[in-house]
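Q: Here's a chain of 179 amino acids. Please give me its 3D structure as C-alpha cells.
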Amino acid sequence: MTIVSTAGATPDGLIDDFRSDTGPSRLGTTWRLVTDQVMGGVSTARMQRRELGGRRALCMTGDVSLANNGGFVQINLALSPEGRLDASAFTGVRLSVRGNGEIYNLHLKTAATTMPWQSYRAAFRALDTWTEIRLPFASFTPHRLVPALDTTRLTRLGIVAIGREMRADLCIADIGFYR
C-alpha cells in the first residue's frame, strides 16, 4: 500500500485490529463518533472498545431517528494523518463484524468528496456471530457526486447506520484492505 504520507503505512493492508484499549489505529489516526446532531438531528450513539466473544472490538450502539431531518450515526477514521492514502494495490475493504442483523454501510471519502453528505457507499448485514465481510471497491456507489471512486485518493472511511429508524448495535474486530 502506498500512502502520500508514510506515517502508519501497513503493507498487509490492516487498518485496525483494536488490540489497544485506547490510542490510534494501525494507521496512526483516531476513531471518532459522529451523529446527525451535527445538523440538528436527534439520533444518539455511543462508541466503546470492549471484548466480545473472545475478540477485542470497537462497538457502536445507538438509536437512529429520522426526526428533524436526521437519520444517521457513524464511527469514522481518517486514513492518513497528513493526506491521502493510495489503496489501488488492493481489491477492496474487509472487516470482521458482529451485530444485530441490521444492514449497515461502509462509506469511503476521497479528495473528490468535498461536502459532508458525499461519499462512496457499500452496504452489508451484520449478523449476530463474527463474520468477515468483503466489499470490493467496484461495489461502492457514489452518493451525491459524479466521479467514480478513485482508490488512489482515499481520505476517510466510516461505518454508518443510516436512512431509517433503527437500533444500531455493531462491533468491528478488525478492518483492512484485501488483495
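Q: Can you summarize the key feature?
A: The chain has no helices and 14 strands.
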